[in-house]
Design goal:
This protein is an alpha/beta fold. 41% of the residues lie in helices and 17% in strands. It has 2 domains: 131 residues, translation initiation factor eif-2b, domain 1 (Four Helix Bundle (Hemerythrin (Met), subunit A), Up-down Bundle); 200 residues, Rossmann fold, CATH 3.40.50.10470.
Length: 353
């Protein structure tokens, strides 16, 4: 069982009465609505639409989607059941390409099925048990990395963050935003300078909602205000999350993260990535191999479905960018703070108890 968290958990994703319940993040902060379903297609759609989002959270959502998919398969012969199940699991794993936590969780859900011997009924129960374990494991990892990361924040600090990496992005207390909120929960004075995070405004919509809940002081700025903020204010650290970290420490995260890292170098501000080891893809050497998701042009040309530029234009749409490892002062994981060169230190974290 996970340890007691220093801040309350958000109702990001839960399993209730054989259904998945998740808070609809496309509606926040103006409406607090929930999606409840026993249909894995609905969860896939929620992942694609960013109704649930953030690397660890979509890992957990993927695991529960596998359970829902399995529960709807009527086949009672194990081999036939597994064949159908694996196809559906692959469909779930392909809903978003960059965050490795999704593939990491779905792979575990597939491995459980392929190595299982017993009845289909027992396999369905085993899959549910594994999905619960993946969720609780995430809560645990976030708590531990939150404690390690909070040590990096001094009293009376000013910190910058981008995208939402709080409880909404995980099933636990979050990663980078969790680190910041843990420092605040420990009694440190601090102020968070929140990048709005164009184009989908995860910072403006979701961080404000989370920081208000924990009464953590913050100010909201547009992404383009970060340079001036670093010039005018003594910033103690920039804390960001990750969607996939390559073996050498190159880190894919929300578009705009790389610019912050470059600005941080110019201003001598320490730039930290906070992520559980489930976000590290040890199978890829460098960031060049990370697939970067392209989103719909409408996410750039519209806000709340209202078009604000001319129609039929070319639009640039990467959802993520990759920050080179050399720009990262430390990668905060549940095992501590890994330091450059990350090829060795991230392996040490993986092997640590
Ligand atoms: O497109 P999103 O909102 O899923 O992007 C999320 C991010 O980039 C987060 O920083 C990352 O997943 C880490 S969440 C703890």
């Amino acid at each position: 069982m996970y340890k007691k968290t220093l801040i309350p958990l958000t109702p990001t994703i839960e399993w209730i009465d054989s259904r998945v319940r998740l808070i609809d993040q496309t509606k926040l902060p103006l409406e607090e609505e929930y999606i409840e379903t026993d249909d894995y297609h609905v969860v896939c759609d929620a992942i694609y639409r960013l109704a649930i989002r953030g690397a660890p959270a979509i890992g957990v959502a993927g695991a529960y989607a596998c359970v829902l998919a399995a529960n709807k398969i009527d086949e009672t012969e194990l081999d036939k059941f597994v064949k159908i199940y694996l196809e559906k699991a692959d469909e779930i794993g392909a809903t978003r390409p960059t965050a490795v936590n999704l593939m990491w969780a779905v792979k575990q859900m597939k491995d459980r099925a392929t190595s299982f011997s017993g009845s289909v009924g027992d396999l369905k129960l085993a899959l549910l048990e594994l999905a619960h374990e993946i969720r609780e494991d995430d809560i645990d990892r976030c708590h531990n990395l939150g404690l390690h990361g909070a040590n990096l924040i001094p009293d009376n600090a000013n910190v910058i963050t981008i995208c939402n990496t709080g409880g909404l992005a995980t099933s636990g207390i979050g990663t980078a935003l969790g680190v910041i909120q843990y420092a605040h929960a420990q009694g440190k004075g601090l102020k968070v300078h929140v990048c709005e995070t164009r184009p989908l405004l995860q910072g403006a919509r979701l961080n404000t909602w989370e920081l208000k809940r924990t009464k953590t002081p913050f100010t909201l700025m547009t992404d383009s205000m970060a340079a001036r903020t670093m010039e005018k204010i003594d910033i103690d650290g920039i804390f960001v999350g990750a969607d996939r970290i390559a073996a050498n420490g190159d880190t894919a995260n929300k578009i705009g993260t790389y610019s912050l890292a470059v600005l941080a170098k110019h201003h001598g501000v320490p730039f930290y990535v906070a992520a559980p080891l489930s976000t590290v893809d040890y199978d890829i050497e460098s960031g060049a191999d990370i697939p970067v998701e392209e989103r719909s042009p409408e996410e750039v040309t519209r806000i709340n479905n209202v078009q604000f530029t001319v129609e039929d234009i070319e639009v640039t749409t990467p959802a993520f960018d990759v920050t080179p490892a050399e720009l990262i002062r430390g990668i905060i994981t549940e095992k501590g703070v890994a330091k450059y060169p990350y090829k060795d230190s991230l392996k040490e974290h993986r092997n640590a108890n």
